Amino acid sequence: MELVLVAVLVVLLVGGFVWWRREQAAREARSLADVRADAQRWYERLGGQVMNLHGDEPAVRQALVDAAERYNAAGGQLEQARTVNQYRLARETALEGLAYARAARVALGLDPGPELPPLAAAEGAGELTKERQVQVQGQTFSAGPQPGRDTPYYYP
């Protein structure tokens, strides 16, 4: 009788463990699918901006080149991503590209569109609120919160 009770207990424990592992795998798969969908959404939005914006001003051209570069990089990252962290990195790359697309829209005099989530890489970096000039190794560089003839190195 004790042997049967022990056998039933072992079967219940093994069955519980198997059920728990399947549920854990299903939760991880759902989480991975959610993160992938989020990264894909930002990537597709960036693609729409890259394909539809054009301009001749140097600041616009440079911002669009940078946005297109991030679009290509995010596409490659999405294609190779297999983990939650890899999908998050692809999302971050797409958001960087969208920041450059917003800069191009501002330089073109268009509505920049809705605010983007904050970039993890930009935390604590601050932002330019007025025109500034710096000298580095004898060269003068100008930067500011808006693109212009005097701020060709405008980055959001």
Characterise the protein shown here.
The protein has a domain at 35-112. It is elongated, with a radius of gyration of 25 Å. Strands 1-2 form a two-stranded antiparallel sheet. The chain has helices at 2-52, 58-80, 84-107, and strands at 132-136, 139-143. It starts with a helix and ends in a 13-residue tail after the last strand. Helix 1 packs antiparallel against helix 2 (58-80), helix 1 runs parallel beside helix 3 and helix 2 packs antiparallel against helix 3. 63% of the residues lie in helices and 6% in strands. The model has no long low-confidence stretch (mean pLDDT 87). The longest helix has 51 residues, at 2-52. With 156 residues, it is mainly alpha-helical. It contains 3 helices and 2 strands.
Secondary structure topology:
Layout: H1 2-52, H2 58-80, H3 84-107, E1 132-136, E2 139-143
Antiparallel strand pairs: 1-2
Helix pairs in contact: 1-2, 1-3, 2-3
